[in-house]
Structure formats: C-alpha cells, structure tokens
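REVIEWER CHECKLIST
Item 1: Sequence provided? yes
Item 2: Single chain? yes
Item 3: Sequence as submitted:
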Amino acid sequence: PTSPRVRTLTPELSKGLEFDLVVLIDPQGFGEGIEGAVDHYVAMTRATQRLVVLTTSG
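Item 4: Structure as written out by the authors:
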C-alpha cells in the first residue's frame, strides 16, 4: 500500500520524521514559552528540502 502524499501532523506527531516539503500554517498558534519554542523548533526542522511558513495578518 502507498502512503498519502499529503499529511497533516502536529509538531508532537512529527518528531523524528523528515519530509521533502513542510508547510507550517500559523505557527504562532503553537503556544508560548518553552513548549511553544520546542514545537516551533520541531516543526521547522522536519523539512529536508523546502520549508514554507504561512501566517495570517491581523
């Protein structure tokens, strides 16, 4: 069986995984303090080739 081409994961579920392309949507919603910083780090370091960060203005 083949795996899905698009996955939606939380930072916690993505730990230890790598992807060619990672798209983060509103990463400021990951939280604050140490836990938020760790989630940002984990999410942003899953990409092996391209990282895209999308934020909303407002």
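Item 5: Key structural point noted by reviewer: The chain has a mean pLDDT of 90.
Item 6: Recommendation: ____
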